[in-house]
Amino acid sequence: MWGLVRLLLAWLGGWGCMGRLAAPARAWAGSRGAPGPALLRTRRSWVWNQFFVIEEYAGPEPVLIGKLHSDVDRGEGRTKYLLTGEGAGTVFVIDEATGNIHVTKSLDREEKAQYVLLAQAVDRASNRPLEPPSEFIIKVQDINDNPPIFPLGPYHATVPEMSNVGTSVIQVTAHDADDPSYGNSAKLVYTVLDGLPFFSVDPQTGVVRTAIPNMDRETQEEFLVVIQAKDMGGHMGGLSGSTTVTVTLSDVNDNPPKFPQSLYQFSVVETAGPGTLVGRLRAQDPDLGDNALMAYSILDGEGSEAFSISTDSQGRDGLLTVRKPLDFETRRSYSFRVEATNTLIDPAYLRRGPFKDVASVRVTVQDAPEPPAFTQAAYHLTVPENKAPGTLVGQVSAADLDSPASPIRYSIVPHSDPERCFSIEPEDGTIRTAAPLDREARVWHNLTVLATELDSSAQASRVQVAIQTLDENDNAPQLAEPYDTFVCDSAAPGQLIQVIRALDRDEVGNSSRVSLQGPLGPDANFTIRDNRDGSASLLLPSRPAPPRQAPYLVPIELWDWGQPALSSTATVTVSVCRCRPDGSVASCRPEAQLSPTGLSTGALLAIITCVGTLLALVVLFVALRRQKQEALMVLEEEDVRENIITYDDEGGGEEDTEAFDISALQNPDGAAPPAPGPATRRDVLPWARAPRQPRPPGPADVAQLLALRLREADDDPSVPPYDSVQVYGYEGRGSSCGSLSSLGSGSEIGGAPGPAEPLDDWGPLFRTLAELYGAKEPPAP
């Protein structure tokens, strides 16, 4: 079999070698002396003349770069050479008769370094392949036509100030598009064009380093360095490119803080409370960032007791504040020293220290009128809900610092208690409830209490009083929402109908824990299962509820676990509906089943029963009206009064009246002598009955008859109500003051003498009475 082969040529000084290589066909027999089939080796039949083309070469005519030839070609003109692949027909063309390959335009290796082509020999007449196709490569030979470039430039780098010589700053890298494997076209050398003597660059690696020590950021912070990269090993004739490197010196803590002045003077009024800003101090530090952060402290104990100093949020200034209340009458000035120290100190620069400084501070206290001061900055009080008005909540207290004996008056700022739920005692600051509180309506009441000096109303101070209403179990649990649901008449037993949720507005202990329970027993149409999480599941029992036109009202009992436990009852409406196969509702009203002949027997019986009941009620009503008219007839022998007034209650009863002898409360000294005969009582029914006067003859006169009977009732002691009015004019014996009642005493008019002994001697219980009636008259002039 004939095949296409590739001829490999060697480099000779950058030019492609011209040559011709033919491999004759050889045949090998089998093993010596051993018969067998002959093994044939097909010789290579292609001849190659050239494989390289110089880039950027532009001549007047196409350049011959190679020749294709096959042993099949006998020079008779019957062989045709074809060329396909990258650039075939445009960049590279072939002579079909001779197989010569020409390049038609200038090539750039940086755009495409090689081309892969496919050669084939065919019969010119029939286009039948004479040889299998073979692949070969044409390479573009490089020339130095590209300068170095820095793809990542310009560069920015940072190096700490005061760095040692040779400290690495950054590495710059240039790229040359020429072929690094051919000559020195891509061999680069780096040099510093601008930036000396501060920085240097490694010629081979491009690493930029510091060239001098102790570069100070405070002197110069930024440097611009220009780096050049040159190919051809830096020799003359090479191409070059440059870039800039901006080097910034980062700060280190190499400068100690320094106060700009040695003495600071401040003043503060004595009414300034703890935390009041007195003044600011700043020690100057030229460093930046964390290296300039400072901490301030008071060195002397005298100043640290009354004042404190801290660093502001920026970490630069010292804030001098009041630590405890000041008193102008006790002390009028303070003198102390303040020290500023760097918080972050680098051990490498301790030789440039010490990193701290000290300044003197003098604070003058100014006199000022002081309002009352409360014992607490804010008050937090609690009170249970539902307590009666007047319940004690707590007490606030304030005092006048200038004059502790000066009285203080307390009041509640109206806008802080718009509902007037609390009151305060003006004298002692006791806070009480003015109305019952409801925690569910409002938990916190934020009052503002005003304390004012009675001597100077302008001196007043305020304090916030937060009153928390404590919860009690006073709300029964309820359903979270009204529930109106449905269930299909074809639902399976145990199916979940609805999840019912409950809520309790209370939150004390177990008050918010709610349990639910539904109707019990085997006859229940629905089942309620408590989920023990404040909800319950409405389930269909084993016996489904029969369909009916009216929905079912399922009662549910809810109770909490508070002390005492509260409960309530709610109702869930459930309709039994006809459903489609997909579960959607078709109808919730069962079809009316009417007899074709009219009303059913049950309906007729119900109508007859209702009519009979109505007739019975009418007859009963007429009979009662007739009986009432007969009872009021004037010719009745029975007494008219007995039909008008009936007394079924005798008050205390005869047993209670007889069990207690009320005559013991009568004054035995002033009692009238008893009448002869047996004693009579006006509060019990007498044994004897007064005789009834006969009715006057003649025609019946209703008015005259009623007047007669009324007079008989007034004169008859046996007719109720009985007179039970008693006069208690005697307080008993054994009291040193005697009787206090004036019912049994004589009238003393005209300055008659008073009691035998003074009222002041009767003790503290009669002090008020002695002040009213026992005061001595002033002596006559």
TrEMBL record:
The chain crosses the membrane at residues 603-624. Residues 736-762 are annotated as: Disordered. Residues 70-150, 151-259, 260-374, 375-479, 479-592 form the Cadherin domain. It is a single-pass type I membrane protein. PROSITE patterns: CADHERIN_1 (PS00232), CADHERIN_2 (PS50268). The lineage of its organism: Eukaryota, Metazoa, Chordata, Craniata, Vertebrata. It comes from the Eukaryota. Cadherins are calcium-dependent cell adhesion proteins. Residues 1-16 form the signal peptide. InterPro entries: Cadherin (IPR039808), Cadherin-like_dom (IPR002126), Cadherin-like_sf (IPR015919), Cadherin_CS (IPR020894), Cadherin_Y-type_LIR (IPR000233), Catenin-bd_sf (IPR027397). The keyword Ribonucleoprotein does not apply. Gene3D superfamilies: Cadherins, TCF3-CBD (Catenin binding domain). It is found in: Cell membrane. Keywords: Calcium, Cell adhesion, Cell membrane, Membrane, Repeat, Signal, Transmembrane, Transmembrane helix. This is Cadherin-24. Residues 736-746 have a biased composition (Low complexity).
